[in-house]
Amino acid sequence: MAKKAQISADHSYDILVIGSGPAGESAAIAAAKAGKRVGVVENRPLVGGSCTHMGTIPSKSLRHAVKQIIRFKSSNLFREIGDSRRLTFPRVLESANQVIPKQIKLHTTFFVRNRVSLHIGQASFIDRNTVSVDLLEGARETISAQHIIIATGSRPYHPADVDFSHPRVYDSDSILSMQHTPRHLIIYGAGVIGCEYASIFSGLGVRVDLINNRNSLLSFLDDEISDALSYHLRDSGVTVRHSEEYEAIEPQDHNVTLHLKSGKRLKADAILWCNGRSGNTDGLNLAAVGLEADHRGNLKVDSDYRTSVDNIYAVGDVIGWPSLASASFGQGRAALSTLLGTDNFPIDDVPTGIYTLPEISSVGKTETELTAAKVPYEVGRALFKNTARGQISGEDVGMLKLLFHVDTLEILGVHCFGAEAAEIVHIGQAIMNQKNGGNTIRYFLSTTFNYPTMAEAYRIAALDGYNRINRR
Ligand SMILES: Cc1cc2nc3c(=O)[nH]c(=O)nc-3n(C[C@H](O)[C@H](O)[C@H](O)COP(=O)(O)OP(=O)(O)OC[C@H]3O[C@@H](n4cnc5c(N)ncnc54)[C@H](O)[C@@H]3O)c2cc1C
Question: Is 298 touching ligand 1 by the criterion CB < 6 Å?
């Protein structure tokens, strides 16, 4: 069957990757570096995936711009230079979007330099070795390959009873083309994306109602960090409503009403739906290869990212959790390692990086998990307001928290919120990954840190924790 398809194909590769986001790109480049003939099919006119066009890059860039505005507004020094009141959401977006073409250029260079052939069109399976591509320019071509890697990503989940075509109803893609600044925005869904957008809009002075289906924010986080996020969101004007579910969303000409099952009715200028994502599998004609996606469009893979069809792999958002660009890069390379039979490395040590204001990042176990597992641990904390760097920079909201084993001093968890938390956490992660006794808070007690730095928080937290067990 494979042989027949290859004979009739317009192009033939060792490895064909569908999707050019982080997962597809990393798989394709790794394959090319290994000397394989590689093709990539992408249904957007430009490479980078939803990561570059709709997700990570635009949202982080937007958040960076808003953070600068907040700094500007809160600094007496800068306030004297200009007035930031004229900054509308579209204007901030326009400035933030300047990074997208730079990212596209960079990623295009990776494909070109590694001689990966790009086919711009929609891919769908003909059989396990053959894919049909409806090219965006109109023609159709057939591509055969020995191995196929599905890296088609995900898109916002759209329940049938919400009218996303209405101009007052947005999702995390369409919000990037919002042409006005709402005075009041409802964000439905308080996962990572919902919380990040709550920070962005409240930072611009928009009144935000953040609707959470659960009874605490981002319940997978350490309790103290989740509490800190709730406090700071509220402090910046976000009304967080826990344990609520929508009954109906009623958009009108001049506003939108959210009817909640609890009987509450909230009215705002617009609503941003941030409640879940669906894997991009519906256009792939999976039936042709005997694969089936779950109810959210996600594919099942084994620990080597192989689907139930042994020459077809799936990586990135299309396999569900953790649905992060960070993990997708690793998964693409990991799938290639399996496929080529080279050194494999599991992607299981995924840190959490949440770009709310304040930023949050963590790796390892939470206090709740350690308590449930009956692990004797101690806590060491450093408050950013007590670091010289925090005081100098004015970034004094935040905390680094180390959880470590009381007997072995092994670091079990690193939890951080505040400026650059997503960077800071990696110092702890590097020590946690040391083998043969190298994972110990002693490292931070015996190492000289540049002064003043935020990294110094590790020494402060380690001393705090160490002193605590020595006082016993
Ligand atoms: C608002 C937002 C903020 C985020 N912030 C972060 C963050 O801060 N950090 C982080 O790590 N992650 C973040 N993410 C998640 C991150 O964007 C995704 O995890 C990442 O993009 C997944 O990469 P991927 O390669 O699997 O898929 P994608 O980046 O989605 O790329 C898949 C590509 O395949 C194309 N495609 C789909 N079907 C076909 C087909 N049949 N034929 C051809 N091409 C096809 C798609 O159009 C797309 O271009 C965020 C996501 C969102 C929505």
Answer: no
23 lines ligand 1 (CB under 6 A): yes
Q: Give me the percent of the chain exceeding a pLDDT of 70.
A: 96
Contacts of residue 209, defined as CB under 8 A and 6 or more positions apart, other chains included, come to 184, 185, 186, 187, 238, 239, 241, 266, 268
Answer positive or negative: Cα dihedral of 390, 75, 210, 165.
negative
Q: What's the pLDDT tens digit per position in 77-109?
A: 766 666 656 688 999 999 889 999 999 999 999
Q: Does ligand 1 have an atom closer than 6 angstroms to the CB of 143?
A: no
Cβ of 103 closer than 6 Å to ligand 1, yes or no, is no
CA–CA separation, 442 and 447 (whole Å): 8
Tell me which of 5 and 431 has the higher pLDDT: 431
Is there an atom of ligand 1 within 6 Å of 317 CB? yes
Q: Ligand 1 centre from 431 Cα, in Å?
A: 30
Task: Tell me which residue of 444, 340, 351 sits closest to 402, measured CA to CA.
Answer: 444
Q: At residue 246, what are phi and psi to the nearest 5 degrees?
A: -80, 145
